[in-house]
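Researcher: I'm preparing a figure for a lab meeting and need a structural model of a single chain. I don't have an experimental structure, so a prediction will have to do for now. The sequence is pasted below. Please return the structure as tokens so I can convert it later.
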Amino acid sequence: QVQLQESGGGLVQTGGSLRLSCAASGRTFSNYAMGWFRQAPGKEREFVAAISWSGDSTYYTDSVKGRFTISRDNAKNTVYLQMNRLKPEDTAVYYCAASLTYALGEREYDFWGQGTQVTVSS
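Model: Understood. Here is the structure written out token by token.
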């Protein structure tokens, strides 16, 4: 089992920044690719970003490219999501997830955190 705990969400104005953190415990963190997903009210959960086991490869959904940066620190068992130039449409609950494969699909992820709320005011 891998336990994941997100933090860093909150309320921010349009154009502001937040950094989300996801601390992992349990199995060897570096064995897992990590992803961030989000779910806005009334919408399905969607992929945001993913990072490979060593951190040398990343992938983003088009709507966040150039604004969000995913990174990881395997020594600290933590993955981050730096979010800049936030927009109201970024408002959602953000989840981190762990997968043995470097994947974009939600079904590929085996372990999930509880989520952290991000609200962007206009």
